[in-house]
Design a protein that fits this description.
380 residues, mainly alpha, name from scop, four-stranded mixed beta sheet
């Protein structure tokens, strides 16, 4: 029972298939704090970068709307053209800043989880509207973490605001004695840089939230040993089915191999343990191994060769060397060219003699085997 229970505990890291399936379902690690921080920080830096440009635009809009000739008040269409011009000027003032914030909104998801498009995430689920599920989420560990994050943001941003105010306090007090234009410029700088510092302080929360979200998502995807076994069976197939498929493949390959034996030029045997069927098409190519086997397979090759009058020749060292160093449809190794050529020449002379067109070979070929291709006779 203990072993069975341990197999159901989700202690194993998720497999690649489980992670991919969760992405297809629209589930991946996400950090809202990172996205919020990126948008706030880029927005504040955008105000610093485009602040002078935007202030000039606002200044021109103010002058354009306040500096109106008396005769324009009597023109009914003037108000609409005036308003259109002002709106266009305001849009051009805000477009660079909006583009920067939009880029931040699109790039921030790349930090954790990446871009993800899934229609399954939009599908309605009863668990989302179930009161019991909602109550369970309210008192879950994730809700407790969100509560601590909220208090953490208040603490971090509040502390940072205190130090910012303390740092700029004297500068703010000195503004009352400054001229209007320098005071406006300096106060704008103070406000903008204070905003940048306060937005940057949320990085602390994001740095804590990102590892937590990755850990939480990975923990949610963890699998039990049984789930991994079931997934392996679904992906790779059951072992008995795979074994049966491999057996059928071997049988099909053996049938194809045996079908090539009748077309062979010679079968070289051990004579009992090995059998290798060779076919030579002539030309510049070397003889090709069309069939080979040991024990029962070798016996079957010899039987088929005998049935179709394919010449057989006993040459144990050569049979072992060809069997060991080649695969089906391979050419024989270069080191065995001389030995195989002697065998083919000998078989040709015997065939010609049997037809009454030549002399009987006086001796068997020597069939030299290089040392690096020799095989121990005890090996099967």
């Amino acid at each position: 029972m203990a072993e069975e229970d341990s197999s159901q505990e989700k202690t194993e890291e998720p497999t690649e298939r489980k992670i991919q399936k969760s992405k297809e379902d629209g589930q991946t690690a996400r950090s809202k704090e990172l996205n919020t921080t990126a948008i706030l920080l880029f927005g504040a830096l955008g105000l610093v970068a485009f602040g002078p440009y935007m202030s000039d635009k606002i200044y021109h809009i103010a002058r354009f709307n306040l500096d109106v000739e008396r005769a324009a008040f009597f023109d009914v269409s003037y108000m609409f053209s005036h308003m259109s011009a002002s709106m266009w000027e305001a849009i051009t003032a805000l477009v660079p800043w909006f583009i920067l914030v939009l880029i931040a909104a699109f790039l921030s998801p790349l930090g954790v989880g990446g871009w993800l498009f899934s229609t399954k995430a939009l599908a309605p689920k009863m668990s989302r509207i179930s009161p019991l599920a909602g109550i369970k989420r309210m008192f879950s560990a994730n809700s407790l973490v969100e509560l601590f994050k909220a208090w953490g943001k208040v603490l971090v941003v509040g502390t940072c605001a205190y130090f910012v105010i303390a740092f700029y306090f004297q500068d703010a007090m000195d503004l009352q004695n400054a001229a209007v234009r320098p005071a406006i410029k300096r106060s704008t700088e103070i406000v903008l840089w204070a905003a940048v510092i306060l937005c940057a302080s949320t990085l602390i929360i994001a740095m804590i939230d990102v590892p937590w979200q990755i850990y939480s998502h990975t923990k949610k995807l963890r699998m039990s040993l049984q789930e991994i076994k079931d997934e392996f069976k679904d992906t790779e197939g059951k072992p008995e089915v795979k074994g049966r498929i491999r057996q059928m493949q071997r049988e099909a390959a053996q049938r194809r191999m045996m079908g090539a034996v009748p077309d062979a030029d010679v079968v070289i045997t051990n004579p009992t343990h090995y059998a290798v069927a060779l076919k030579y098409s002539g030309g510049a190519g070397a003889p090709i191994v069309v069939a080979k086997g040991i024990e029962e397979t070798a016996l079957k090759i010899r039987e088929i060769a005998k049935e179709h009058n394919v010449p057989q020749m006993e040459a144990p060292p050569l049979a072992r060397a060809i069997y060991t160093h080649t695969r089906i449809d391979d050419e024989i190794p270069e080191g065995l060219f001389v030995a195989v050529a002697q065998v083919l020449a000998y078989i040709y002379q015997v065939d010609q003699y049997a037809k009454g067109q030549g002399v009987k070979p006086d001796r068997r070929p020597t069939m030299p085997i290089p040392k690096d291709l020799r095989v121990d006779p005890k090996a099967k």
